[in-house]
């Protein structure tokens, strides 16, 4: 199984991140529900019953997905206890974040289906955020959508490397990996993707 586990924090049994090198592991992530399971088990262990309550789905629907995540070393059993005659297990994500290893090809990522899963998850989460908003303006500090936009950039290969470095420096102080202080803070997801555009007038242009 080509999953590279980076060094865990002292006193913690999760890796900071997993480098995903195997297309099979990407396929395991190619389902919005499985991504949500990992999100729910990053901070603390959860039983299937607790996951079902958090995700609003029947427990019977989750067992299959939990097994797939376990098989691909994205989720592990954290604790076992007997509840009557039944063994109850709690699960913990094996890392706090996941990133595709540079050795993976774009074709492998596309074939895995993980791009569609991520797009579906982001769409669903944004719709929930917008539904639950009390009417604050987009971009406002208390808005459920404080950042929303689509930008066009013209970049050279050197520009891309420089932009990646600047983004890492910009977002680093706000990551739970580097700043665990949550006092007065809300949890946000920030999804970013840079991709080449088809030339205007070509059959593939949007």
Fold topology:
Blueprint: E1 3-5, E2 18-20, H1 23-29, H2 32-40, E3 46-47, H3 48-55, H4 59-71, E4 75-83, E5 86-93, E6 98-100, H5 106-112, H6 114-132, H7 157-171
Parallel strand pairs: 2-6
Antiparallel strand pairs: 1-2, 3-5, 4-5
Helix pairs in contact: 1-5, 2-6, 3-4
General description of the model:
The protein has a domain at about 5-100: Arc Repressor Mutant, subunit A (Orthogonal Bundle), CATH 1.10.10. Helix 1 (about 25-30) packs parallel to helix 5 and helix 2 packs across helix 6. By secondary structure, the chain is of the alpha+beta class. Strand 4 (about 75-85) and strand 5 form a beta hairpin. It has seven helices and six strands; from the N terminus they run ββααβααβββααα.
In short:
The chain is of the alpha+beta class. Helices cover 38% and strands 14% of the residues.
Inertia-based shape: globular
Give, in spatial order, the strands making up the sheet with the most strands: 1-2-6
Helix/sheet category: alpha+beta
Radius of gyration equals 19 Å
Report the sheet-strand fraction: 5-15%
Report helical residue fraction. 25-40%
The CATH architecture name of the domain at 3-98 reads Orthogonal Bundle
Terminal CA distance reads: 38 Å
**Could you say what the CATH topology of the domain at 3-98 is called?**
Arc Repressor Mutant, subunit A
């Amino acid at each position: 199984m080509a999953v590279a586990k980076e060094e865990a924090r002292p006193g913690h049994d999760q890796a900071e991140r997993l480098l995903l090198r195997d297309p099979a592991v990407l396929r395991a992530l190619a389902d919005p529900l499985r991504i949500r399971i990992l999100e729910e088990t990053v901070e603390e262990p959860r039983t299937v019953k607790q996951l079902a309550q958090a995700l609003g789905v029947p427990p019977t629907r989750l067992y299959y997905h939990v097994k797939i995540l376990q098989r691909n070393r994205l989720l592990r059993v954290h604790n076992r206890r007997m509840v009557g005659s039944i063994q109850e297990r709690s699960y913990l994500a094996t890392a706090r974040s996941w990133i595709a290893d540079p050795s993976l090809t774009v074709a492998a990522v596309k074939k895995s289906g993980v791009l569609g899963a991520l797009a579906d998850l982001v769409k669903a989460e944004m719709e929930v955020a917008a539904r639950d908003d009390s009417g604050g303006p987009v971009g406002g500090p208390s808005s459920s959508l404080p950042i929303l936009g689509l930008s066009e950039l013209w970049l050279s290969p050197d520009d891309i490397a420089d932009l990646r470095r600047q983004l890492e420096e910009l977002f680093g102080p706000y990551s739970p990996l580097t700043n665990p202080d949550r006092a007065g803070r809300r949890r946000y997801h920030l999804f970013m993707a840079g991709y080449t555009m088809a030339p205007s007038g070509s059959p593939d242009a949007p």
